[in-house]
Amino acid sequence: LEANAAAGSGDPGSVQFLWIPSGPGWFCSQNQQLVETRKTSVHITLVLYGNNKSCLIIFYKLFVTSCWRPTFISRFLKPLTEWTQLGSGSDVSVVLNDSDPVGDPVLCVPGYGQTGPQARSPGYDSIASAVSGMMHITGPEDGEPVRPGVAMTDLATGLYAHGAVMAALLHRQKTGRGSHIDCNLLSAQVSCLSHIAANYLNAGKEAKRWGTAHESIVPYQGFRTRDGHLVLAAANDRQFVTVCQVLELQDLAADPNYRTNQLRVQNRKQLLQILSQRFLQQNSADWLRRFQGSGVPVGPINSIQEVFSEPQVKHNGLIQEMEHPTAGRIAVPGPAVRFSSFPLSGPTPPPLIGQHTVQVLRDTLSYSDDVIKELLESRAVAQNEVS
Question: Where is the signal peptide (predicted)?
Answer without folding.
Answer: none
